[in-house]
């Protein structure tokens, strides 16, 4: 019977159905139906990152800061040279180390308020040095850091207290050296906000004792039942950043996650600009006992954290610390860096074409006198 139904002769009679028969023989009857089943959309940290509500103001800040970081990295390299300048040929070989994906000359010429490009009077090659205006701001930043040295020491102490064994890898601290920038020891930054909420808004202690500031981005959709879940999570007791685990033993995943949220919140609060590149959190996972998928956890709390993918890296920002793209509570180091950013945003505006040659002549005369 099978030979009659599926014979060569009958296949020619039903040419339109041949592709169906081929599919059945190739995959089998069960596999054929399986291929056509509806597939559940993949829910992962990556898909949630791509589908999240973007905060365009914070993204814009990250794009601007990217170019400032590149400029500061180039300055660090130039400052290590013996005479305080570097040839463009040397810089072009080093540009990939700082993540610069355009020609070095094109990048430097975009920011004449920061970089001086000139022809060396003796070597006759194009060289670059930092402008006096930028050099003054870098010196101002160094002075602000030194003036805040006691606060920085206190921040380092708090970082050590966050770790499970009181130690941290020096490489991890070196990676966030720019992010570190004055608070009470063993008291998390969020506690100040909780006291303010309790005293000024007359809220019940149960509503504020374990809560976090929540600021959702514009366009965030609140689904049915979300407010109730958020309220329950805000009231959930957890082991705070500097507390002993015995005070509130971790019995479930929610308490563990909230404990880690508290550590991430405190770590970001200890930085100058309330932001840290996401990949640098990995260096603190073990010492801070945060053995979870940090990106996935951060994406679960869009009212507390924001991950910006702009600026060639994924950066975590503390949402409550920013308003309209600026820090709500600025500090001296942040203020200096904003002045540097203003130079980046100025581009070529306000540059007099005669300024460069006059300065070059003065430098040449000074260098000639030094040589003689």
Task: Please give a structural write-up.
The chain contains 18 helices and eight strands. It has helices at residues 2-5, 8-13, 18-27, 29-35, 45-51, 56-79, 88-94, 104-109, 132-147, 149-162, 170-175, 189-200, 205-208, 226-235, 253-269, 294-299, 332-346, 355-371, and strands spanning 86-87, 115-119, 126-130, 275-277, 305-308, 315-318, 322-323, 326-327. The strands form three sheets. A three-stranded antiparallel sheet has the order 1-3-2. It has a three-stranded antiparallel sheet with strand order 4-6-5. Strands 7-8 form a two-stranded antiparallel ribbon. By secondary structure, it is mainly alpha-helical. Helix 6 (56-79) crosses helix 17 (332-346). Helices cover 51% and strands 7% of the residues. The protein has three domains: 2-35, no CATH class; 56-136 and 340-371, Arc Repressor Mutant, subunit A; 149-330, no CATH class.
């Amino acid at each position: 019977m099978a030979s009659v139904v599926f014979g060569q002769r009958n296949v020619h009679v039903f040419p339109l159905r041949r592709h169906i028969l081929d599919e059945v023989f190739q995959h089998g009857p069960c596999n054929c139906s399986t291929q056509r089943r509806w597939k559940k959309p993949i829910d992962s940290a990556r898909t949630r990152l791509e589908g999240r509500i973007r905060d365009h103001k914070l993204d814009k800040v990250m794009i601007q800061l990217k170019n400032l970081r590149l400029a500061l990295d180039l300055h660090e390299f130039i400052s290590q040279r013996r005479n305080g300048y570097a040839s463009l040929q040397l810089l072009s070989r080093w540009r990939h180390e700082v993540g610069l994906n355009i020609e070095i000359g094109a990048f430097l010429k975009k920011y004449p308020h920061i970089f001086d490009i000139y022809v060396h009077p003796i070597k006759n090659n194009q060289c670059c040095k930092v402008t006096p205006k930028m050099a003054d701001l870098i010196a101002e930043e160094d002075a602000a850091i030194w003036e805040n040295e006691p606060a920085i020491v206190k921040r380092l102490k708090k970082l050590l207290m966050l770790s499970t064994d009181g130690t941290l890898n020096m490489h991890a601290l070196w990676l966030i050296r720019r992010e570190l920038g004055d608070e009470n020891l063993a008291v998390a930054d969020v506690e100040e906000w909780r006291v303010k909420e309790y005293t000024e808004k007359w809220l019940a202690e149960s509503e504020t004792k374990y809560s976090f500031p929540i600021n959702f981005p514009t366009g965030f959709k609140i689904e049915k039942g979300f407010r109730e879940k958020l309220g329950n999570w805000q009231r959930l007791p957890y082991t705070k950043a500097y507390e002993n685990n015995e005070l509130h033993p971790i019995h479930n995943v929610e308490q563990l996650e909230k404990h880690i949220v508290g550590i991430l919140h405190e770590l970001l609060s200890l930085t100058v600009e309330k932001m840290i590149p996401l990949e640098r959190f990995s260096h603190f996972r073990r010492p801070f006992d945060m053995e979870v998928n940090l990106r996935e956890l951060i994406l679960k709390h869009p009212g507390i954290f924001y991950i910006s993918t702009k600026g060639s890296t994924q950066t975590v920002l503390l949402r409550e610390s920013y308003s309209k793209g600026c820090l709500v509570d600025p500090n001296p180091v942040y203020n200096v860096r904003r002045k540097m950013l203003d130079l980046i945003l100025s581009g070529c505006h306000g540059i007099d074409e005669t300024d460069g040659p006059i300065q070059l002549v003065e430098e040449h005369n000074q260098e000639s006198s030094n040589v003689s």
